[in-house]
Specification:
The chain is α/β, with parallel strands linked by helices and 421 residues long. It contains 18 helices and 14 strands. The chain folds into 2 domains: 189 residues, 3-Layer(aba) Sandwich (D-Maltodextrin-Binding Protein, domain 2), CATH 3.40.190; 198 residues, D-Maltodextrin-Binding Protein, domain 2 (3-Layer(aba) Sandwich), CATH 3.40.190.10. Helix 11 crosses helix 18.
Length: 421
């Protein structure tokens, strides 16, 4: 009788397992390849490698192909990805900035799978902020898994250098203009800059300071024209800031511009907080002592954010392996392995801050209390079409320094790319 009962229970258990759908991310018998497409190479590589190591531990029979394409902010990677996506050869999963960079491009083109099922399965709607989930979703689905939160509007400096020069970190651009001539007289570049995309990055912080958060947001809904008086004023301020940057900017990477600050050739650099990862992991500087930071001039109390995320393209060659990768990215374990090395904070609300350095702890505190606005340079506020066109506008401005012309051109590309519609 006892044997029959045990046998009956076993059969019921098997029946339940057959009837229930297999947990998409929990299968441990995965095999084959997994191609991960990103731009995390070089100094950003260790954070990605930490995730890959975790994935291999969970799925040892999967061969992970780390398909990185070098180039700051994904400039080169996006071009390669476009060729592959349009050619019907998508990677299994690819890095993309959360927001309109993905939604306005590949979701709009019906090239991505809806990940609502994975969010439901993993319980992510309870641990990712509601506002973030809205950003990565539409009324038709959720389209990517955020792996981090980065802050764009950060000003970096070396405390010992400022003490040596007898200056303080500027709270406003007027403060910056007051000390910049003194720095130049000492042979120090007041603000280091790198290639074109870092000019876009600097512009958004300057524009946020000039416009304020309400008008900044209004640009992206079409309620404020780029060639309005406020829009022109932002370009004028940006032009004044550029007068105190290095002449060789176009030939430098963002890391080289950061090195100028570390070496004392420059005083300040406005860059996203991946610079914290670079300064602490590669340069071995202690946060708060070896290097320090503040909100970029004029933006205190505002957190200009971006989020790196990964999606699932339709036709992914190894779909099951990709889903397992996405599940790892959204997990607390994956998030807390990746972000301390990357210099970012977790997109989850339950991360273990004991694993993070002092910069990350301060960023997490600011994210919880500051006014949150989206980044243009990193894909939150506008689609890829606008971002590509804006790079051309920036090239024009860097040569001409004509604020009126740049503002007019920005408005034209806004209309062209459907901003506000």
């Amino acid at each position: 009788m006892k044997r029959k009962c045990i046998r009956r229970m076993a059969l019921i258990g098997i029946a339940i397992l057959v009837l229930l759908p297999m947990t998409s991310a929990g299968a441990r018998d995965l095999s084959g390849d997994l191609e991960i497409f990103s731009w995390w190479a070089g100094d950003e590589g260790p954070a990605l490698e930490a995730l890959i190591a975790l994935y291999k531990a969970r799925h040892p029979s999967v061969n992970v192909i780390n398909a990185t394409v070098t180039g700051g902010s994904g400039v080169n990677a996006k071009a390669v990805l476009k060729t592959r996506m349009l050619g019907g050869e998508p990677p299994d999963s690819f890095q993309v900035h959360a927001g309109q960079e993905l939604i306005g491009t590949w979701v709009k083109a019906d090239r991505m799978e809806d990940l609502t099922f994975l969010f439901d399965e993993q319980g992510w709607n309870k641990v990712f902020p509601e506002g973030l989930v809205k950003l990565i979703g539409t009324d038709k689905g959720i389209w990517s898994v955020p792996v981090n939160i980065h802050r764009s509007n950060v000003c970096w400096y070396i405390p010992a250098n400022l003490k040596k020069w007898g200056i303080e970190a500027p709270a406003s651009w007027d403060d910056f203009f007051a000390v910049a001539p003194k720095l130049k007289a000492k042979g120090v570049v007041p603000l280091s800059l790198a290639q074109n995309w870092t000019a876009n990055h600097l512009w958004e912080s300057v524009a946020l300071a000039s416009l304020g958060p309400d008008q900044w947001d209004a640009l992206w809904t079409g309620k404020l024209a780029f060639d309005s008086a406020g829009g022109v004023k932002a370009w004028e301020l940006f032009g004044k800031v550029l007068e105190f940057t290095n002449d060789d900017a176009s030939s430098l990477s963002w890391q080289q511009a950061t090195d100028m600050v570390v070496d004392g050739r420059a005083a300040f650099n406005v860059m996203g907080d991946w610079a914290a990862g670079y300064l602490s992991t590669t340069k071995k500087l202690a946060p708060g002592k070896g290097f320090a930071w503040g909100a970029s001039p004029g933006t205190a109390g505002r957190f200009m954010f971006l989020a790196d995320s990964f999606g699932l393209p339709k036709g992914a060659p190894q779909r099951d392996n990709a889903i397992a990768w996405l599940a790892l990215l959204g997990s607390r374990e994956g998030s807390d392995a990746f972000n301390p090395l990357k210099g970012s904070i977790s997109a989850r609300t339950d991360s273990d801050l004991a694993k993070y350095n002092d910069y990350a702890k301060s960023a997490a505190a600011d994210f919880g209390q500051d006014r949150i606005v989206g980044s243009l340079a990193h894909g939150v506020t506008a689609n890829e079409g606008f971002m590509n066109d804006f790079a051309a506008v920036m090239e024009m401005f860097l040569k001409s320094r004509n604020a009126q012309a740049a503002a007019k051109a920005a408005q034209q590309i806004a209309v062209k790319n459907g901003i506000g519609k």
